[in-house]
Amino acid sequence: MNAATPPERRSVGVIGLGRMGLPIAQNLLERGFAVIGYRRSGSPELKSAGGVVAGSPAEVAAGSEVLISILPDIAAVEQVVTGLDGILSALRPGTVHLEMSTVDAGRKRLLRDAVRKHGGDLLDAPISGSPGMVRPRRTTVFASGEEASIEQIRDVLDAVAGSWVNTGEFGNGATMKYISGMLMASHTVAAAEAMVTARRAGLDLELVQRTLDNSIAGSALLAQRGPVMRERSWVPAPGPVETLHAILEQAEKYVGALGLVAPVFAASKEVFDNAVADGWSELDIACVHDQIAGRQALDGTGGVA
C-alpha cells in the first residue's frame, strides 16, 4: 500500500523583505508555510531560510494563496499592486492580500477595490512594534476589512508576528496604528522628561527605574527605554526615530482632518520633529532624552556622544 501523500503546504507571498518583512517571512516558514518573496534588491536571506525568491510581484502572486506586503510608502504599495508586473497581472481568484504598510487608508481602499475587481480581496492591517519585536512575535497586527477574508487567513495572522486584533471595517487598522503611534510618542517623551528630571536632581537612576516600574506611574515605554535613556546609548536602534516619525506625520494629518486639537500629541511630535531636524533619524527613539536635556546625541563622527 502506498503511503498517504502529505498535504501540500499553504503558500504565502511576502512582498517587501526589509527589516519587518524578512522576519515575517521567517516566522511563516517556521510555522510550516511555503513562502515566496520579492524585494527589488533580492533576498539571499530568504533563500537561505528555505523560501523562494521571486523576480517580480506578479511572480509572487502567481505562486501564492495569500499575499502579504509591507512597504515604506503608498507609492510603493500602488506600484506593487497596479504597476508593471504588479500582483493584479497574475492574481489568483480568491486570494486575500494582507497589506501591512502604514499608509493612507483612502488610497489603500482604492487598491482594495482594484483587487476585488480581479477576484481577490485586500485587508488593511498595519503592524505595531519595532523590527526586533517581529521574530519573537511580540508585535500586534491591526487587521481591518471584510470579516470573511480575515477568517480565511486566520492561520496566517496567527503565524505572522504575534497577537492580532480584528478592528472592524476597512481602514480601522490604520486608525489604530495612528492612535498607537500617538501614545508611543507621548509616553516616550514623558519618560524622557522623567529621566532628565531625575538626572538633574542627582537621583540614582537605577533606583528611579525600579521604583517607577513597580508603581502606577510606570509604563511599557519607560520599562523598555528608561535603561537606554539612563545609559544614553542610542545605537543599535531597535526602534529608530525615522520609523515612528513617519507614522506621526500621518497621524498629525488624520487628527487634523478630524478637527481635533491634541496638545499632548502635538508637543510630543515637536520633540521628534526636532530630533529629525538634528539628524537623529537613525537613532533609537529613546534619544529624545537628549532633546529634553538640551544635549547633543551625536558627536562629530556620527557616534554616540
Q: Termini distance? A: 71 Å
* Helix count, DSSP H or I runs of 4 or more residues: 13
Report strand %: 5-15%
Rg estimate, integer Å: 21 Å
Following the backbone from N to C, one meets helices and strands in this order, namely EHEHEHEHEHEEEHHEHHHHHH
Global shape: elongated
The main β sheet shows up as:
6 strands, parallel
Helix content: 40-55%
> Structural class given helices, strands, pairing?
alpha/beta
The count of DSSP E runs of length 2 or more, i.e. the number of strands, is 9
Strand order of the largest sheet: 3-2-1-4-5-6
- Stretches where pLDDT is under 50 for at least 5 consecutive residues are 1-7, 300-305
The residue-averaged pLDDT reads 92
| Multimeric status of the protein | single chain
Itemize the secondary structure elements and their pairings.
Blueprint: E1 11-15, H1 21-30, E2 34-38, H2 44-49, E3 52-53, H3 57-62, E4 66-69, H4 74-82, E5 96-99, H5 105-117, E6 121-124, E7 127-128, E8 139-143, H6 147-152, H7 154-160, E9 162-166, H8 172-200, H9 205-213, H10 220-231, H11 241-257, H12 263-277, H13 288-293
Parallel strand pairs: 1-2, 1-4, 2-3, 4-5, 5-6, 8-9
Antiparallel strand pairs: 7-8
Helix pairs in contact: 4-5, 8-10, 8-11, 8-12, 9-10, 11-12
